[in-house]
Amino acid sequence: DESIWAESYDRELSVGNIFDIQADVTGQIAAALRARLTPDEQRQVEARPTDNLEAYEAYLRGIEFAE
Q1: Which position among 2, 32, 49, 58 has the lowest Cβ density within 10 Å, counted as fewest Cβ atoms?
Q2: From CA 26, how far away is CA 5, in angstroms rounded?
């Protein structure tokens, strides 16, 4: 196994920016891999699944439970 991306990421996490941080980290990893995202992939990265963080957490718990 080999690490490809291991940057430090120091940004305050809040309900308002969690998905922005996720998109930013995804972009940094793609750049490190020299990957080019298609326009559809870029839209998926930038999409906000919800503005309700509690709903998103419940959704993630449901996925974990289903697995």
Answers
A1: 2
A2: 11
